[in-house]
Amino acid sequence: MTRKWTPISTAEEALKAILALPKAERARLFDLMAREPSLARYMMSPSPRQLAFDVSAEFEGAPDYVVVFDGGSEGNPGFGYGSYAVITRDGRQRVRRLDFGDDMTNNEAEYDTLIAALEDVSERVEAAGKRPADFTVEVRGDSSLVLRQVRGEWKAKDERMRRRRDIVRSLLSRFGGYRLVEQPRAETVKVLGH
Questions:
Q1: CATH architecture for residues 11-194
Q2: Which residues pair with 98 in a beta bridge?
């Protein structure tokens, strides 16, 4: 039997086709999209009703990776910057500094830093020939807005924030388990140096 394919020409048609997929295939599609960071940045953000995010993907014991993140801007909006640390279970630590350029708010810089950190961890796991689903990650930061929006405790009213929140959720859902930990600013400074 030959199946007839109809070309998809609008975002609404694409979303309808994706939502018609069985749940496992839909999850596989989002996993494939998340593997390609350039696609994740431009993917259409589904509404919470369309793609549920499990805010309780807790796990027992120590995480395989700890991500500590922070971002800001010189002016608001202004020149955006950020930094993050990735700490492995065996204690190895790598800190990375980021510059995002002009016309960025503090909250956008916080989100973009977390996105870069989660993409980094995923890419390193895959470069080692493994799957993020076989690892756990704990995200630590002092940004109440980012962590509480990702958890669903606070609404992301602005489209720019919703899009970033959904990318973070997509990246987190690739891991076998994750925790979001709000920590005092002093703890973030201790790890990142600022």
A1: 2-Layer Sandwich (3.30)
A2: 82
